[in-house]
């Protein structure tokens, strides 16, 4: 799925610094193409979040975006195109919703008609101006299931507190508080959290991915014995996985908590 949204529609959701960064990267920028890439491959139990079980999405999505750019260049040979995966100056969920790709859930995730919220978002900035049908971002059905199920209270009627998010907690370096340790152990997670997505009724019919990198060679769980003793060995073994970006420390800590008697 893909769509286009003009920069002038996104500006009010961006800081001045973000706008300056976008304009410096693509002089004369007019808008962005938004794409979604489904990653759901299986729903089996495990201690690794569903999004991190296959290939690192940074590499996989960038590869997919480069293919889209090749297609765009054939159609618009004089235009500029710059791909973004994750670290972009744009409000990615907002951009994808405004491009008509889905609705914004109360958990701040994009929920698409075909793949639910189990998608990665990729953007391509361009100096190409296209006429796009205005599409105001809508919201989910508002059942509140994700808010009720969130184990840390990161989700509430007042919005989302990233610092309280269990996914964020599992990825932090250093020592955790006693309450954070209890949550990691109680929720049986070594990396990430899927609770708000698994309880969402709009994800009930989410289709599986057809992207090979997300569908093959899956790692659903890890044990302490799976973590190499050195950082260099850890990076060599898991360099193609999204859970490797923080190094071995957070995983080693979390797995030790899960394996406590």
How would you explain this protein's 3D organization?
This protein is α+β, with helices and mostly antiparallel strands and 261 residues long. It has a domain at 2-126. 33% of the residues lie in helices and 13% in strands. The protein is globular and about 60 Å long. The N and C termini lie far apart (46 Å). The relative contact order is 0.19.
**Widest beta sheet: strand line-up:** 1-2-6-3
Tally the helices.
11
Biggest β-sheet, characterized? 4 strands, antiparallel
Approximate shape: globular
What order do the helices and strands follow? EHHEHEHEEEHEEHHHHHH
N/C terminus separation? 46 Å
Q: How many individual β-strands?
A: 8
Oligomeric assembly: single chain
Mean pLDDT: 94
Portion of residues in beta strands equals: 5-15%
List low-confidence stretches.
none
Helix content: 25-40%
Structural class: alpha+beta
What Rg is obtained from the alpha carbons, in whole angstroms? 19 Å
State the main characteristics.
11 helices; 261 residues; 4-stranded antiparallel beta sheet; 33% helix; alpha+beta; single chain
């Amino acid at each position: 799925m893909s769509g286009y949204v003009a920069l002038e529609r996104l500006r009010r959701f961006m800081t001045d610094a973000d706008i300056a960064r976008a304009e410096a990267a693509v002089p004369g920028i007019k808008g962005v193409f938004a794409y979604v890439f489904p990653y759901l491959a299986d729903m089996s139990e495990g201690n690794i979040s569903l999004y991190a079980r296959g290939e690192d999405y940074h590499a996989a999505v960038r590869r997919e975006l480069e293919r889209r750019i090749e297609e765009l260049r054939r159609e618009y040979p004089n235009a500029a195109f710059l791909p973004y995966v994750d670290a972009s100056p744009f409000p990615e969920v907002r951009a994808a919703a405004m491009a008509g790709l889905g609705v914004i859930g109360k958990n701040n995730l994009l929920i698409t008609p075909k793949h639910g919220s189990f998608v990665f978002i990729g953007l391509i900035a361009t100096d190409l101006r296209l006429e796009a049908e205005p599409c105001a971002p809508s919201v989910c059905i508002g059942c509140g299931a994700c808010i009720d199920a969130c184990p840390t209270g990161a989700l509430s009627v007042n919005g989302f507190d990233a610092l309280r998010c269990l996914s964020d907690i599992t990825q932090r370096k250093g020592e955790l508080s006693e309450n954070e340790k209890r949550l990691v152990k109680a929720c049986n997670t070594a990396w990430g959290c899927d609770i708000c997505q698994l309880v969402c009724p709009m994800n009930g019919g989410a289709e599986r991915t057809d992207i090979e990198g997300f569908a093959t060679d899956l790692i659903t769980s890890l044990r302490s014995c799976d973590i190499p003793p050195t950082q260099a060995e850890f990076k060599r073994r898991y360099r193609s996985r999204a859970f490797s970006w923080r190094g071995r420390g957070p995983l080693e800590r979390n797995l030790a908590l899960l394996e406590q008697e």
